[in-house]
Every structure is written in structure tokens, then in C-alpha cells.
Amino acid sequence: MEYGMYYLEQVTPYEAISRRMNKVLASGRTRFQDYFIFETTAFGKVLVLDKDVQSTEKDEYIYHETLVHPAMLAHPEPKSVFIVGGGEGATLREVLKYKTVERAVMCDIDDELVEMAKTLLPEWHQGAFDDPRATVITEDARGWLETHPDTYDVILIDLNDPVGEENPARLLFTVEFYELVKRRLNPGGVVAMQAGMLLLTHHHQHPVTHRTVREVFRHTRSYHNYIPGFFLNFGFILASDAFDPAAFSEGTLETRIRERGLGLRHLNASFIEAMFVLPKDLLEAIQRETMVSTDALPFYLTEEGEARQAPYQP
Amino acid sequence: MEYGMYYLEQVTPYEAISRRMNKVLASGRTRFQDYFIFETTAFGKVLVLDKDVQSTEKDEYIYHETLVHPAMLAHPEPKSVFIVGGGEGATLREVLKYKTVERAVMCDIDDELVEMAKTLLPEWHQGAFDDPRATVITEDARGWLETHPDTYDVILIDLNDPVGEENPARLLFTVEFYELVKRRLNPGGVVAMQAGMLLLTHHHQHPVTHRTVREVFRHTRSYHNYIPGFFLNFGFILASDAFDPAAFSEGTLETRIRERGLGLRHLNASFIEAMFVLPKDLLEAIQRETMVSTDALPFYLTEEGEARQAPYQP
Amino acid sequence: MEYGMYYLEQVTPYEAISRRMNKVLASGRTRFQDYFIFETTAFGKVLVLDKDVQSTEKDEYIYHETLVHPAMLAHPEPKSVFIVGGGEGATLREVLKYKTVERAVMCDIDDELVEMAKTLLPEWHQGAFDDPRATVITEDARGWLETHPDTYDVILIDLNDPVGEENPARLLFTVEFYELVKRRLNPGGVVAMQAGMLLLTHHHQHPVTHRTVREVFRHTRSYHNYIPGFFLNFGFILASDAFDPAAFSEGTLETRIRERGLGLRHLNASFIEAMFVLPKDLLEAIQRETMVSTDALPFYLTEEGEARQAPYQP
Amino acid sequence: MEYGMYYLEQVTPYEAISRRMNKVLASGRTRFQDYFIFETTAFGKVLVLDKDVQSTEKDEYIYHETLVHPAMLAHPEPKSVFIVGGGEGATLREVLKYKTVERAVMCDIDDELVEMAKTLLPEWHQGAFDDPRATVITEDARGWLETHPDTYDVILIDLNDPVGEENPARLLFTVEFYELVKRRLNPGGVVAMQAGMLLLTHHHQHPVTHRTVREVFRHTRSYHNYIPGFFLNFGFILASDAFDPAAFSEGTLETRIRERGLGLRHLNASFIEAMFVLPKDLLEAIQRETMVSTDALPFYLTEEGEARQAPYQP
């Protein structure tokens, strides 16, 4: 490590990553979280919220294609989409690539972050906020969904892990929240979510989320991909009551990708299918899991990645 | 980061990983390389050679299953195996799980490292060095293969990346070396190798190696897996003149895994197949690659992960 | 920072020092504290207890000469010496350089540390433990002094700062403890102690200790020196009821240093006198200080270096 | 170390300091050097040039009082002052506290740095640049002194160490440069300079500079002080042909400090005198030194702090 500026991120309680910063574009605190935006040589701009790297300019396409397209491609004709989180606008950007989409509602509680993204992170949103089909709401997503009965073809959930007992996001990882999400899906609707790192010692976020989602949806499927900017393999979940969202009939995916003109950079039909194939040890960890997170006993993660259940005291 | 001892590893020239060490078991230098062996909380013992983490106790099974079994399972009845590198003995251990194997020859130039592994890394070799079918040679693998005309059903190559113009390992990544390897394969033989990290900014080791191997073998297939202890996605290559080693007929893999009684922890039949499916951007990087590494102009990697060709001056 | 092993020490809550370790000689935990002993290029062996570097091979002579000789030289003929702490034996070594010394009692609670020092830190003790004049006691120094009425010409206190409310050492920084020390001094006796780093933001250890000692002794004098291995300027205190220990008459120091044949490497007469001259800002901080640490309300330091008083609950 | 932004500075080749940055105010490169300006909790704003911390808001008064006042107080009535380096304006500020000063010329080659300091570092210059007695020149100091025959009562040299064979500052540390400086002194004039860290393993900058200055001036005196923001003890040199600048007659310093109304925060008369008292090991290192830096063979420092002589090839 040469002299200069670094960003330090604890990946586990025992392993940390230092990233050389060429320039710091912004740092401070919104009402909800610390933020850091800086430039690096290999990953371009990097966005950090609280202690975690959220996204890097050079590889955000991998993360956002992985979060968005399996769900959108699983749906025969997605017209309306709701996004929980996703403040920098790249999830919205990917959603708006679908010409069938008539309405995309993004709900991120952190209005200051959204404003900052508009100015400082154009590489992410690429103008998506200005699309007439897009609506941005800066409120608590659960509260908003509870009070607004509109329904959607696809709901995408992009939240940080609920680390720490005090974490208010814990109530966005419960059976009751997923039931609310399900009520806001149109018939034939599908939900996708980011669901935790898949690290040897940190398997618990993913299995518990999988187990909890499975309480609510008839079909719950895990998939995974390596996100270079995180130096981590991440888990995702696709769920639907209507159909198995990972069981594409021969050629369907390929046709949809071509017909919908998505210009994918990382995904193709066969790789999407391969993402749904899990290694044996992870499969077993998911099968073994018994913890179901509820509003009465929502789970949270310890710094070690262990899952614990306890009442949430705001 | 709490007070205490850390191991610092530069993953790219701009990003570094610090690992908290609970205890240092050994550190020093053999005739060939620096070594560090220490204990960590999450990954157990960690082995570092020169600047790179080679293996961790808790996840080495992922790396070694990934390196060994696709090749061994591709072969209908592997009886003889040659291992280039692999000094800590875990590749040998996985190979010896096959009851058909009558002879496994491991060739690692670093005799001091092999001796140290026998004492300090029993979790890796698990007694493999004492198996009567095993032979350990501590010489330069290329020299040894050139002078010993024995042939093998499977050859496994487990070498570090040829980083730096002075790196003597550069001559183990050339057309001529792979031709030598091919001459030492029995008819129907197959070769597998570790083939570099797959990081956004570090794609060059893998494409160049793929392109070079393809000069020599009729069938060259890349596959990949996430290695938690490296915090990286790694590429591997399987090659054969006899058959496409990634084209298993329906049910073959599953049957062989069951019949051969391998006790796999990470791999299963469907995940092995999924590892051979590459994302679009990596596929394109491989297809675009034109560099072929030869003895006259062997390639090397810069610290940035770029590949360059230049004569090797020992 | 090159790849390899480092020791990380937080010097303030915001500034940390990384030291490259060439080799780790020992690491673990005694009943009382974590310990780390390692080799470095510039400072030789380094001893760390809990989170603080205690001493380095190459500069320990500076620290121990500074702690020991002002007190020993202030005394006209030191025959008996009691050392609180000082487990590695270098304070004892410096004390035994005085031929007048007939009895040197070192009391360090950590018997495991003392044993380790005998084997691993010969550069510190240099055989001092084997001197027939030396006695080593491994008990709580306060308890021992309370129950043993022997008295001494010089008492040297070498303790870590009482950082943290739970720190048991808090009761070794109170008026009552210093009164006990005074009762164990012979007439004409003198006490010296290490008294905290003198860092801009960390002035509170020193002023509070000075203020507390002044409650007990007629003459209390601060002095300071830079300890390279700590990268810090450190404060020390000399106190006596009999005479002002920093007011040497012309030529006395020089004569005593010469006559006693001490072979000093860092100190000479004029530098000893200069160490007692404090800069204006530190003088003012000491004068302003009003906190007196008592058994009822012993002070402790926060991580920020602020001093707080609160009852100690063992 | 908590998550967040850090500045990494190598203090020796083996020891490094990380400083937590709350906010980055500027970072980039002028024509001459890299710069970083950031805010920290304990030291306030920090200015870094190339790889070294130059100054921190909270302790710069210690450094600048130490550099400026011994020379200014040694002079009976300083009217004209020349400053080599000192781009942030704090040396100038201290100089202008003397009402006798009629002309203060600061010469720093880095015009971009000076402009930045005006805006971003008001805590340093405190308006000094606007004083009608001040002149700022942004040229090479040696070239300017050679072509401008004006003479001064006091010359203050505030330069970074000449680390590295390519360092153009090497020609500002030679006999010929100090002879030029002497020619630009009025009769009775005095020069002061920052002269390197005094660290166990880094003694060579100071002894060599002392030895070189002594070739030119009849009276050459070293002094030292701990600079908290550097975590280092620093050496300084005062030189004059007219008188011994460290030999103040009884009461002179005290009187001058009072009469000149300087409002010193760190220095007082007795501490100034104490700064000129060196420890035995440093005295011996200075006495042992034989290297004299000349234009033909200017010295430079290696990263290890060793001094070497070699021709300078621009």
C-alpha cells in the first residue's frame, strides 16, 4: 500500500478490505446513514453507505443485471414494477429497458441520498429519474406499501443486510413484510431480492431469508453471482405464487432476451439458468435452516454473520 | 480493525485485504519463496506463499474439489495422475479418493515447503503423502516431465500466476509446455489447471491461458468458481484431445460421483455443469483474446493484471 | 506497505501505527493480558502487552534510562529499590548497575510474562534476574506493599495507563496508593514513575497523575522524553518528601554519573536537567488540573485520553 | 480502525501511520507534488505533501514556534526575514508577530500550493499573506537568492528531507547553498532550518545537515522538539557567523519574549534553552558524522534514512 487515501471496509469481523481512493467526491451523513463517494483506479466511482460498499461504477452492471433481469424475464409481460431501495437509480435504469414497462415506482427512504445520486452518480441512473414512466418516493417502503393498494407485476427489493439488533431494516425481512409484498403483486407477479453474501462463515443471511420467503410464496428460488466490486459471492432470491420462476421452458429465456432488446452485458440465457444451480454445501445450509423471521421475532445478523431472533424495539 | 496481528495481501494494485492472525505458526523463506502459515478465526489455518493466499483450512475443500474432480470425473477410469505443484498435499488427497487410481505423482519444486506441509498442514494432506500409491518429487516439473516419458490419464496443474517479467514460472504457461503435457497424457487423457482470478480488471490471465491451451488441445473448456478464502472468483481450464470434457451425457456425472464414493462436500453433478457456463462478458473476453504464450515469447502478468509477451531471461 | 505480517496499534482512537513483523516469536494471553513478541527490522524485538507497545529492543535503553536514573541519581546512596511492574527485567537491570544497591525487589503480577521474558527477552534483562541482589515477586504490588512493611530508598513505578472503567490498575493511581508508597520509602527516599503520553489530545493522564502525586509528596516534578519505539513523547514524575529531586546542585549529577560508572547511552547530566523543563502549554495543563484520584473515586482514561472519576467496581 | 476513510503515511520503510479522515477538503497534484488536505478529529485539518504530513491545524503552532522563534529571538532586532519554503503561510505569520520586522519575503516554488493555502488553510496563515510587509515569490529559492542580492537579518529554511536520488531539493542541502544563504545574511544575521526527524533509525538527515552547515558557519547549533502531529521528534539547526545563537545571556530570552509581545503558546525562555540540550546518543551521532554535502556530491536519503552522496542528474 502506497502512501495516500484509503477506504477501509470490514468484510468479516476478521478480514478487511482497503481501497485506494484517488479522489473523494462526497462524504458525510444523511438522516439515515453515512455515505462516501470516491474514485478508484480499477473500479471507477465507488458508493459506500454506512460500512458497506454498495456499488462500483465498473461492475454495477453485474450486480444490477443480476438483481433485475431474472425477475423481469420470468414475467411474460412486465408492465408495472415497484423497487424497494435502490437509491442510486441503476435498478430503475435496468427496469426501464423493458418497453412493456408503463410504470416504475422506486421507494427509497433516503431522500438526501437520492438527490446526491442524481448529481454525483450519473453513471448509475443514466437519466432514469427523468423517464416519464418513473416515480420516485422517498418514504419508508413498508409504510408506503401498507397505505397504497396499487399492485405490480414485479417487485424488486434491494436492501442492506439487517446487521445489528437496533437495525430498523429488520422489519423489511419478515414473513409479514413478504406477505404485504405478495398482496401488492398482480396475479402472475414475481418478486426478486438481494439476499446476502455467500461466504463460508456468513451463510446465515441467505438461508434465513430463503426460509422466511418460503413461508409466504409457493415458489422460492435462490440464485447467486460473484460481484467483483464486493469481492464476494452474493445470494439472490426469486419468488412467485404463480409459477416456478427458475423453470424456463427451452428457449424462452433466449427468445425474451432477444425480443426485449435489453443489451445485456453480463447475463445471457444459459448463465441466468446456471446462477440458479447452487453448490452442495449451500443447498444443505438452506435445507437445514429452520429460522423464520417474523414481526414478533424479526431476525438480525451479528457481526459474525450469525442470525438471531429477538423483538425489535425501535 | 482491533489491535493485533494482521496479514496484508494486495489483491489488486489498489485493493488490499487485511486478515487478523490469531497465531503465527511459521514464517520465513524457502529457496523459492516466502511463506507464512497462521491461524485465523473464520478461515482456520491460512497458507500464504510469496504475496498470495494459497489456501485456507476452512475452504480449501472448495478449491481442491473444483480443481480435481471435473477432470477426474470426466475420465472413465483414471488410474494414473500427475500433479504439477500442489505442495500442501490436498490435490493429492482428492486424487487418492479414487479407488481406480494406482499411481499419483506430485511434482513440486519446493522441497522445504513440502516438508513443512507434512508437519504443519495435516488438515490439507490428511495423510495423503503416506499413501503407497503416492510419489512426491521435488524438482522442476517441466524438467522432470521432459526427462521422464511416463504417461498419465489425468494431469492437474496447480501453479501461481506468472506475475512479473522475472518470474521463472513463465515457462510453465506456454504452448511448448502444454505440448509436453499432452505428450505425457495417455490416449483419452485429460488435463485440468487453475487459470487465474476472474476479476473485472484482471481478466487477462484467464483469456491468455485459455487461448494458449487451445493451440494445443482439440477441446479446451473454461470453468469458474468462487473461492471464499481468496475473496475472488477463479477460472479453471479443462482440456483434452480425446473428447469434450465438459459435455457429460445425461446422468453420467451423477452416476460417477455416486459410484466412485467421493464424499464431495461442495460439488454435485449439476453444480459441476453450471461451473462451465460463463457470463457473457467473460466469454467475450476469451473470444477476443489473441495472445498465444510461447517459449520464445512467454507471457507474464503486470501487477495490474495485464498480459505482456517478452523473451524470458533467466 | 508491502505484503506480509503487521502489528496494528491504535495510538489514539483516530491514529494507528502498523509495524511490519519479520517474525513472530510469541503471541497469546496470560491470565492478565494479551502478549505479542515479534521481530522488526528497525526496532529489533518488540514487546506488546494488550494493545500497547511496551518496549523495543533497539530503544528500550532510552525508556529505561529515563525511568530509572533521574531517581537513582537524585538519591545520594541508593541501597534498596522496589519496582512496581517492569516484568521484562530492564528496569531491574538498570537498577543493578548501581554498586550501592544491595536489594532490588521487582513486583509484577504477571508470572507468565516474567517467565516468558526470561527466555525470550534476554536483551532486556541481560541476566538481571540471576543477580543475587534481585528478588522477583509475582503478586499484586499494592497488596504486597500493604502486607510487607519493608522500606526502600527508591521506588520505581512502571505501569500502563489506566484506560477503561474496568481497568484493575486504577487503584494503583490514587492518593491512597501513593501514600502507601510513601510509607514504604526510607527517609530521604524518592519515587519515580512513568506518567503517560504527552500528546496534544492526550494530556490528561499526565496532569491528573501529577496533581494526585502532589497531594502526597512535598516535591513533585514532571519530566519528559521522546521514546522512538512508541512514536510518542512520554511524561514521567519524580517525587520526594525529603528534597526537590530535580534541583541538583552544580556538578552533582555529572559527578554521580561518573563516579557510579553507569555506562549511560542516552542520558548525560545536562540532558537529565533539560528533561525537567516543560513547554508552556504542558506546564499550563498541569497547573490547570484539579482532578485528584482517590480510592473512592479513582480516575480512568477514556480511549480519547480524557480523565474521568468513578467508583471502581472490581 | 473503524470503517471509513484513512490516510496512510509510511514513517519508516517498516512503520506506517493511518489517520482517520472525517472529510477530504482537497487532493490532487500540483506541478511539483501530490497534496492532500483533510479533517481529522484530534488534529483538525491536516496538510500532506507527497508522502509526508507537513502540518496539522492543532499542533502547527508547536512546529512553527520551534522553527521561527529561536532565530528571531537570537537576533537583537530582526527587520528583514527571508523564508525558504513554508508555503502554507504559518512561518510567515510567526515572523510578522515581530513589530520590528519591516520586510518578510517568502519563497516557495509551488504557486498552486500557495494559492490553495490562501483559501483552504486560513488557520495557518491567518491573513499573513495580506500583511503589507509580506512578499510572496513562487520561484526556485536557490535561483532567486542567486539573482537577488538583497540581504536579511534572519533566514528561515523549511524544506522537506531530500529523500531519493532524483529529488531536486538535494541542491538546497549543500555547502554551496548554505554559502549563498550566508552571503544573503546581514552582518549579525542568523539562519534557522528544519533538519530532519530524530528517530533511532533515521539519524542521518540531521547529522549530515549539521556537519554540512558547520562547514559554512562559525556557530552551528542543533536543537530538537517533539511534533505531536508527526509522532516524531524533529531536529532543527540555528547557525550564525556573528555569535553563538544558543548562548543567551541570563534573562535575555525572557526579556525579549516579554518585550516583543509574541503571545507564545508552546515556548518559553527555559524551554527554548532546553531544546538545545541533546541526548548523549544524538550528540555522538553528530560528532561522528563526516559526510559533507556539496554541489558536486550532494547527499540524499534512502527510504531507510541512510545518507548517500552522488552527483545530481536533473
Could you outline the blueprint of secondary structure elements for this entry?
Four copies of one chain form a homotetramer.
Chain A: E1 4-10, E2 15-21, E3 23-29, E4 34-40, E5 44-49, E6 52-56, H1 60-74, E7 80-85, H2 90-95, E8 103-107, H3 111-120, H4 122-125, E9 134-137, H5 141-147, E10 152-158, H6 175-183, E11 185-197, H7 205-214, E12 219-227, E13 232-240, H8 252-259, H9 269-275, H10 280-288, E14 299-301, E15 307-309
Parallel strand pairs in A: 7-8, 7-10, 8-9, 10-11
Antiparallel strand pairs in A: 1-2, 3-4, 4-5, 5-6, 11-13, 12-13, 14-15
Helix pairs in contact in A: 7-10
Binding site for spermidine (chains A, B, C, D): 64, 88
Domain PABS (chains A, B, C, D): 4-241
Pfam families (chains A, B, C, D): Spermine_synt_N (PF17284), Spermine_synth (PF01564)
